[in-house]
Backbone:
């Protein structure tokens, strides 16, 4: 039995057999083989090379017939690499000398090739790196063969172990029998973590090397509540975790029973609790948990599918479905927040060196106007179905907001000319996610209909910590006094300007911060549906003056540790039965 500590993305306990994902895009965990297995491992490499050459030959022939020899030459180049005797002997040496598995040795040699291409001066040769990655995937597909996991075909519940998952891979887990996830990489507010949270299954990320410690088939416990993963649990541990699993289910049931109660403080101040969604079907889940609307619809998840960007009609149907499911409740549609960890990197030849500071979000939208306009048309067309608001992400300057609004007006004019109706009272707002926008909040208040504070990004940019990087996750905290003060100031300015201001970052769904946020004057929270019950329970136990006193005290501390210790002790007093 081994206990590993990571970062929780969703509470609860999942107990099941492990499936380790090592297909295609994933790192191949280190595996040693016995000396007797060496010849078989070497044969697997030879067979994989030969099979790949045949496969590529067929593909080159088809391409040649349809598109001519230029297109087919790419595959001829792949065949040339696979025939290179040095490639095979390099892999064979690693298997013989180091007793590495065929998959691991192949992956290491191909990664080495990629590194060498990357160092070449000729840009054309650097582009070859994609081809080398392609060859690696082809070989691994062939070597791993039947052992590759197709998660949609699972017949019994399993816990999934992987090095990392991209948001698009995570999005595909929803319809599978995966009951919990543990990853080497990731941090609490990475988009992968956010998806796992909205999916509501227990998950722990940032475990660093779990994918090399588990080989698949053994029992694993994911304890999202206590941020740990237990591999090969012994009998007493299993019994204890089964009891915890039952207790968690009981507690969630009790919280669900609060669905019909108002989200109002003890002294009668209503707090709007909205839900964050990534897919239209989640609106019903949110409403069922008591959401008063959708505070953040992350539309970019529509784009994270193998076929790429959805058409205007496909988008229109998705937005319409979400709006209709909300049944008259407000729906805030955020325009696609692509880039950084979503979409663009997977599709680019050369990945950005610093994607979180790169071409992402509204910057990407304003440089991809055709794509952007298609989305705005789809949102506007769907807006006649209910109370819809449009929100632009990651605004850093007034010019950006104005440009985005101008593009929206262009789309409106086009619809007008075509005689297509849209909701003429549609509100247009922005996410406050950058220090620059926080500093210029007064000016923004003159131009926006509403503000929604995205603390996931705001914290990363204020503290200069990549929100998805497990190596620096200890520095990422919303308890930092600078974060608290910025939030207080933003809310204060919005209030004075009479501009609606809500919060939709993960902080909004954390009991640890709820009282503070009420104390600084926030009255609209948007969060993963699974968090609504707990936050409502807490809100119903406090008064506004009590929250204001707590906020005032929290704002007086000098370090994040003092802040979180204080908030934890106060919250535990009010809500002793919940983990904070
Ligand atoms: C945020 O940054 O807080 C936010 C809600 O947006 P996202 O997590 O999608 O970046
Ligand atoms: Mg954001």
Residues:
């Amino acid at each position: 039995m081994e206990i590993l500590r990571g970062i929780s993305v969703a509470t609860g306990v999942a107990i099941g057999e492990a499936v380790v994902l090592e297909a295609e895009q994933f790192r191949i965990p280190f595996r040693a083989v016995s000396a007797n297995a060496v010849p078989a491992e070497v044969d697997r490499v030879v067979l994989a090379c030969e099979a790949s050459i045949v496969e590529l030959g067929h593909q080159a022939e088809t391409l040649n017939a349809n598109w001519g020899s230029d297109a087919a030459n790419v595959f001829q180049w792949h065949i040339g690499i696979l025939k290179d005797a040095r490639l095979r002997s390099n892999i064979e040496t690693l298997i013989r000398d180091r007793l590495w598995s065929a998959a691991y040795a192949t992956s290491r040699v191909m990664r080495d090739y990629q590194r060498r291409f990357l160092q070449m001066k000729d840009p054309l040769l650097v582009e070859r790196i994609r081809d080398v990655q392609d060859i690696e995937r082809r070989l691994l597909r062939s070597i791993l063969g039947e052992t590759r996991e197709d998660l949609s075909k699972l017949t019994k519940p399993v816990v999934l172990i992987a090095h990392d998952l991209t948001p698009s891979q995570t999005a595909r887990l929803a319809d599978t029998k995966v009951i919990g996830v543990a990853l080497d990489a990731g941090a609490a507010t990475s988009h992968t973590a956010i998806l796992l949270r909205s999916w509501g299954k227990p998950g722990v990320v940032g475990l660093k090397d779990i994918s090399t410690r588990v080989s698949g088939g053994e029992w694993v416990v994911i304890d999202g509540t206590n941020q740990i993963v237990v591999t090969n649990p012994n009998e007493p541990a299993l019994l204890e975790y089964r009891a915890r699993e039952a207790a968690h289910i009981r507690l969630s049931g009790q919280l669900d029973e609060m669905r019909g109660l108002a989200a109002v403080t003890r002294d009668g101040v209503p707090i709007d609790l909205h839900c964050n969604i990534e897919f239209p079907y989640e609106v019903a889940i949110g409403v069922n948990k008591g959401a008063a609307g959708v505070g953040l619809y992350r539309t970019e998840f529509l784009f994270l599918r193998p076929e790429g960007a959805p058409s205007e009609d496909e988008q229109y149907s998705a937005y319409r479905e979400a709006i209709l499911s909300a049944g008259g409740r407000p729906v805030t549609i955020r325009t696609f927040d692509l880039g950084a960890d979503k979409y663009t990197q997977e599709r680019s030849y050369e990945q950005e060196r610093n994607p979180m500071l790169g071409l992402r979000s509204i910057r990407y939208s304003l440089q991809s106007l055709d794509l952007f306009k298609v989305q705005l048309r789809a949102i506007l067309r769907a807006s006649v179905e209910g109370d819809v608001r449009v929100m632009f992400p990651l605004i850093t300057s007034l010019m950006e907001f104005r440009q985005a609004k101008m593009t929206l007006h262009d789309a409106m004019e086009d619809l007008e000319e075509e005689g297509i109706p849209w909701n003429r009272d549609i509100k247009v707002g922005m996410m406050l996610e950058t220090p620059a926008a926080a500093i210029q909040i007064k000016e923004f208040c003159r131009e926006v209909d509403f503000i929604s504070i995205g603390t996931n990004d705001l914290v990363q940019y204020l503290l200069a910590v990549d929100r998805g990087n497990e190596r620096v996750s200890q520095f990422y905290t919303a308890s930092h006094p600078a974060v608290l003060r910025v939030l207080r100031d933003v809310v204060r300015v919005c209030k004075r300007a009479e501009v609606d201001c809500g919060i939709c970052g993960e902080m909004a769904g954390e009991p640890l911060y709820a009282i503070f946020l009420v104390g600084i004057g926030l009255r609209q929270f948007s969060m993963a549906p699974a968090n609504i019950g707990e936050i409502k329970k807490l809100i119903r136990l406090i008064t506004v003056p009590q929250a204001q006193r707590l906020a005032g005290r929290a704002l007086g501390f000098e370090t994040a540790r003092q802040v979180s210790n204080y908030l934890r002790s106060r919250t535990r007093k009010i809500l002793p039965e919940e983990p904070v």
Observations:
- The chain is about 50% helix and 15% strand.
- The radius of gyration is 26 Å.
- The pocket of magnesium ion (ligand 2) is lined by residues 393, 433, 454, 456-457 (CB under 6 Å).
